[in-house]
Amino acid sequence: MKIDPNTTLVVSTTASAAAPAAAPGWRGLHNRAASAVERLFHLDLLTLSSRVALAAIFFQSGRTKVEGGLTVSDNAIALFTDEYRLPLLPPEVGAHLAAYAEHLFPLLLVLGLGTRAAAAALLGMTLVIQVFVYPDAWPTHLSWATLAAVLLRFGGGAWSLDRVLRLR
């Protein structure tokens, strides 16, 4: 044992202190189950599923705004004119920006390319939707924001082009 001069704690230097013995009873059972869950839901699986989930939400929304390939529909422009009414942005511009963003950023997320930037963009869109369009839909928007926050914090994970290209 040694005494850390910066604290009044006694720090053990033996190997047994680094790995405590398995706790008996319910605590041990809980800890073993928690370890199994951590192995099952590895961070790389969580980042991949977060990328795909967030991408699906916005890509499906983007598809409702276009006809054919990427031609913004009259219905999308009408939606931005009548229902969304974003401040400082003409409806035609808003409809086009949203439609293109809801196709580009989900594609980047699925590829895991520029994951943090794509997640930040979709988080920004989520905040705009929450504040200006559907303020009562905060539970849905909170789930979207949480997916984006996971990607902002951890990046694309091992199964991403970001990792292949050594991008953080």
Automatic annotation (TrEMBL):
<dbReference type="InterPro" id="IPR051907">
    <property type="entry name" value="DoxX-like_oxidoreductase"/>
</dbReference>
<keyword id="KW-1133">Transmembrane helix</keyword>
<comment type="similarity">
    <text>Belongs to the DoxX family.</text>
</comment>
<protein>
    <submittedName>
        <fullName>DoxX family protein</fullName>
    </submittedName>
</protein>
<dbReference type="GO" id="GO:0005886">
    <property type="term" value="C:plasma membrane"/>
</dbReference>
<feature type="transmembrane region" description="Helical">
    <location>
        <begin position="104"/>
        <end position="129"/>
    </location>
</feature>
<keyword id="KW-0472">Membrane</keyword>
<dbReference type="InterPro" id="IPR032808">
    <property type="entry name" value="DoxX"/>
</dbReference>
<feature type="transmembrane region" description="Helical">
    <location>
        <begin position="141"/>
        <end position="161"/>
    </location>
</feature>
<keyword id="KW-0812">Transmembrane</keyword>
<dbReference type="Pfam" id="PF07681">
    <property type="entry name" value="DoxX"/>
</dbReference>
<keyword id="KW-1003">Cell membrane</keyword>
